Amino acid sequence: MISIIDTTPYTDQKPGTSGLRKKVPVFQQENYVENFIQSIFDSVAGYRGETLVIGGDGRYFNRETIQTAIRMAAANGFGRVLVGQGGILSTPAASHLIRKNRAFGGIILSASHNPGGPDEDFGIKYNVGNGGPAPEKITEAIYARSREIDRYATIDAPDIDLDKIGTSQLGEMTVEVVDPVADYADLMEKLFDFDAIRDMFAGGFRMVFDAMHAVTGPYAVEILENRLGAQPRTARNSVPLEDFGGHHPDPNLVHARDLYELMMSENAPDFGAASDGDGDRNLIIGKGIFVTPSDSLAILAANAHLAPGYSGGLKGIARSMPTSAAADRVAEKLGIGIYETPTGWKFFGNLLDAGHATICGEESAGTGSDHVREKDGLWAVLLWLNILAVRRESVLDIVTTHWATFGRNYYSRHDYEAVETDSANTLMDELRAKLSTLPGTSIDGLTIESADDFSYQDPVDGSVSANQGIRIGFVGGSRIVFRLSGTGTSGGTIRVYIERYEPDASKHDVETQKALADLIAAAEKIAGIRKHTGRSTPSVIT
Ligand code: G16
């Protein structure tokens, strides 16, 4: 029985870099979830009788929201819902399911790498029929609708048993609870040389994968251990927990510290990797070397032809603006296009659909390809494994050879988290106001060549996204970028991205923060971070 329920709008349902992210108690307010989901349905057209994919990263409030979304999909006229068993679907697996089943779209419940639990974070993302995040045109329509919504549709029905694979009926709509792993694992098997990787493991190659008690656990166990024959317990923390065991499921050097220390120890295995809450990010660490996401993108692009899925070569590479220019040098050598987009995977969708780019990446630990329309943590891990299996060199050797060939882009990101929103905005406003006066000036011997606020025009649909981050370029190719994060849930987060290009291989083994010290000091002088935030050091350095 369909019911139309009266509701009143909330004013804060503006999707950020990746969907709507808020604290759980915010989502638990009366009709908060219902308003947002109805706003999604009201902002897209033509879904009657079509398929909707639903799943999430297993965090607290996942199951309740899935039941709400299923009922609302039935009441709004969808013909079929595909939902991952246990409510689980990694973001890349959801993207694949949407594409494979030619679904109309998908609702993915995740706050990515943010912590989970009753007082922590939750999120709702909407993905469109190409499997990728909704473009800005749609997220803006959803926000506009959420500000005037006055009713939503649902159906009176008992909960669906999410734990049992099978098909049931909800009113006119079919609900299929599906294995969340199988289709995705099959896709990986098509892209990569599983025989070569299996041989490498059989020869004693050792790896540790930290699933951080998040969604990739079941995927990693099935792919790495069951299908590729890696030793049992290669996948650690592999049971998804609603609160991620009390940790941040963020695969960086702060939150995956144990893995980092293991990889730097005498006893380190050959390869270490981790993924985040919803499985789209990756962390790659070789024995004795952390590979920055920007370098990883460049190295994967330079070696992708060694994997069967990319043996025909790449059409182009795309990277977000703050990502280092390491990939640009690879694109130049391969004679293919390089695209610089704003932060947010949604900006890669058109480039992938139009066949301009095959591989995309971001400094924020995201890499992926045209196999889905999301970044994909395990995909990056498997491409690395495929390259290692073919080259039979250590990660350290592969990285240092890459630098010797292309030069090294020293790179670091400094985050100032949970800063007062007003202070963060003032810092950016003051910076923006003086941009035109900066070129030609020098700070401690570093001469500024260019300064602007990045604006992107999508080469496929012509849409323009302005104010995407302040870029300060120095003579010689070094760069500092300032931007406010679009994914935080408390206050503002200022991100400062610092990069220096060093072509001389004899200067490639300087410690990163040391190699960037003069630029780090210049960032403080240009932006007055201490004055605005009261902080003398960043909260996180990656
Ligand atoms: C999301 C987006 C990424 C973006 C990252 C950081 O990742 O999908 O494209 O790079 O946030 O964004 P920001 O710098 O605005 O915080 P995820 O893994 O959180 O979905």
TrEMBL record:
<dbReference type="InterPro" id="IPR005844">
    <property type="entry name" value="A-D-PHexomutase_a/b/a-I"/>
</dbReference>
<dbReference type="Pfam" id="PF02878">
    <property type="entry name" value="PGM_PMM_I"/>
</dbReference>
<dbReference type="InterPro" id="IPR005845">
    <property type="entry name" value="A-D-PHexomutase_a/b/a-II"/>
</dbReference>
<dbReference type="GO" id="GO:0004614">
    <property type="term" value="F:phosphoglucomutase activity"/>
</dbReference>
<dbReference type="InterPro" id="IPR016066">
    <property type="entry name" value="A-D-PHexomutase_CS"/>
</dbReference>
<comment type="similarity">
    <text>Belongs to the phosphohexose mutase family.</text>
</comment>
<protein>
    <recommendedName>
        <fullName>phosphoglucomutase (alpha-D-glucose-1,6-bisphosphate-dependent)</fullName>
        <ecNumber>5.4.2.2</ecNumber>
    </recommendedName>
</protein>
<dbReference type="Pfam" id="PF24947">
    <property type="entry name" value="PGM1_C_vert_fung"/>
</dbReference>
<keyword id="KW-0413">Isomerase</keyword>
<dbReference type="Pfam" id="PF02879">
    <property type="entry name" value="PGM_PMM_II"/>
</dbReference>
<dbReference type="InterPro" id="IPR005841">
    <property type="entry name" value="Alpha-D-phosphohexomutase_SF"/>
</dbReference>
<dbReference type="Pfam" id="PF02880">
    <property type="entry name" value="PGM_PMM_III"/>
</dbReference>
<keyword id="KW-0597">Phosphoprotein</keyword>
<dbReference type="InterPro" id="IPR045244">
    <property type="entry name" value="PGM"/>
</dbReference>
<feature type="domain" description="Alpha-D-phosphohexomutase alpha/beta/alpha">
    <location>
        <begin position="183"/>
        <end position="285"/>
    </location>
</feature>
<dbReference type="InterPro" id="IPR005846">
    <property type="entry name" value="A-D-PHexomutase_a/b/a-III"/>
</dbReference>
<dbReference type="InterPro" id="IPR016055">
    <property type="entry name" value="A-D-PHexomutase_a/b/a-I/II/III"/>
</dbReference>
<keyword id="KW-0479">Metal-binding</keyword>
<feature type="domain" description="Alpha-D-phosphohexomutase alpha/beta/alpha">
    <location>
        <begin position="13"/>
        <end position="151"/>
    </location>
</feature>
<feature type="domain" description="Alpha-D-phosphohexomutase alpha/beta/alpha">
    <location>
        <begin position="294"/>
        <end position="406"/>
    </location>
</feature>
<dbReference type="InterPro" id="IPR036900">
    <property type="entry name" value="A-D-PHexomutase_C_sf"/>
</dbReference>
<keyword id="KW-0460">Magnesium</keyword>
